[in-house]
Design a protein that fits this description.
This protein has 214 residues and is an alpha/beta fold. The protein has eight helices and eight strands; from the N terminus they run E-H-E-H-H-H-E-H-E-H-E-E-E-H-E-H. The protein has a five-stranded parallel sheet with strand order 2-3-1-4-8, with helices on both faces. A hairpin with a 5-residue loop joins strand 5 and strand 6. The longest helix has 24 residues. The mean pLDDT is 90.
Length: 214
Amino acid sequence: MNIILLGPPGAGKGTQARKLVEDRNMIQLSTGDMLREARSSGTEMGKKVAEVMDSGKLVTDEIVIGLIREKLEGDHGGGFIFDGFPRTLAQADALEALLAHMGETLDAVIELRVRDEALVARIVGRSTCGSCGEVYHDETKPIPADGKCTVCGGTEFKRRADDNEDSLKTRLMEYYKQTSPLLGYYHAKGKLKRVDGLAEMNVVEASIKAILDA
């Protein structure tokens, strides 16, 4: 089973992707992670990625599709989660063509829907464990009093510099500009499913499970 997770910054895509990896042995394909991995791999594709990134240029769709192709040729696990790709209609077309060429299909596109005001409240005050990525929040899930992550015991926590209201609104506007055409594209193909991203984490998880098991 292959799916795309869509949702604005802070909607919980990473959290839900990790659950799918744990519970269904799916493989998360995050554009950022793939680029960093390729850059340090020493492969021909990796050298190409390093050259583009070191020059300060944007990595082309062709390169990203090439990285995805490499992943599709490897271990399939329980299927793939595309996280952060596609972002444009051209990328969506390219992904569809690649999947067809590889004999794969896209089973669902799951959008985690949120209200902007609630999302701002969720994001401002957010921090993550520097070791495992577990998310904490000053009000709803504060870092434990002993300063240790409840998942891995790590003691270093990070807070994104752009996790403030003004920066978040800018990021949200950019997200909506990019993804609005994608929502229509996948709706027309009958692939788009929507989940309340502001529900409790286990409720969101159950909603995604119901979609995948349908």
